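An example makes the point: we let one protein speak, the chain in one-letter code, the fold tokenised, and here it is:
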Amino acid sequence: MAQHNETGRQGEAEAARFLREKGYDILTTNFRYQHAEIDLIAQRGKLLVFVEVKTRTGTAFGNPEEFVSYTKARLVMKAAEHYIFTHNWHHDVRFDIIAILVSGSAQRIRHIEDAFS
């Protein structure tokens, strides 16, 4: 596996752990619909959260959250619409980004709620 893929996989696992510690249940990971993928789908009470995880090992090219493009956000929202429809969800939804910056053995996690608003 390429190093950037491994970094991304580890970041997604860390983001899931982070959300669990905040009281969320992780419903699914790497949900795919057509050309879109949602990294994590989590729930807390009657709130369904679609999460894009971005992990970087440095900020030379910008912070992790800056790598979520408009196109990526649209794809995530399209996949979320499909998930909501197929799971008959009738409560609140939110789109978040979890940005993880890894530097050696240290890491910084930033949870951005309502990131696509």
About this structure: The longest strand covers residues 92-103. The chain has a mean pLDDT of 91.
